[in-house]
Write a structure and sequence with these properties.
The chain is of the alpha+beta class and about 140 residues long. The chain has 5 helices and 3 strands; from the N terminus they run αααβββαα. The protein has a 3-stranded antiparallel beta sheet. A hairpin with a 2-residue loop joins β2 (about 60-65) and β3 (about 65-70).
Length: about 140
């Protein structure tokens, strides 16, 4: 697996021009702290831009010269592995199964684990007496 995300996205069909375009589009050519600030800007509901935003749905709150302040939903960009699919849609499709798994594990712990814990606490002394008398 290549360490460069642009090479990972292009696979075997990469060339210098395409790598440069991907690096500029996703800001991979910027320092890490700037990439992190771009990421936080995409996640926050209030977003600051110098050009008109690229989000699907947003509401402009303030527009002055080259300054845009917009209200939006968090934008997680597109998946590197599944081309042209938004990460938010991938998360949304996995969310119902995740909730079913989480709720079933909570119910299992509540209805099976708690009663077994109570029984273990109740019979602890009897078990320890038999266990210690067996080895003495």
């Amino acid at each position: 697996m290549p360490a460069d995300p642009a090479k990972m996205m292009l696979g075997n069909r990469d060339n210098a021009k395409q790598l440069k375009l991907i690096n500029e589009k996703y800001h991979f050519n910027e320092p890490t702290y700037k990439q992190y600030l771009y990421y936080l800007n995409d996640l926050s509901p209030l977003s600051i831009h110098s050009n008109p935003p690229v989000y699907e749905s947003y509401m402009t709150i303030l527009k002055k010269d080259n300054f845009f302040l917009v209200l939006k939903t968090p934008y997680l960009r597109t998946s590197f592995y599944q081309k042209n699919i938004l990460v938010s849609s991938l998360i949304a499709s996995a969310f119902p199964n995740t909730m079913i798994l989480a709720l079933s594990s909570i119910l299992f712990a509540l209805f099976i684990g708690v009663p077994l814990g109570i029984l273990a606490a109740f019979f602890k002394d009897k078990f320890l007496d038999r266990f210690t008398s067996f080895f003495s």
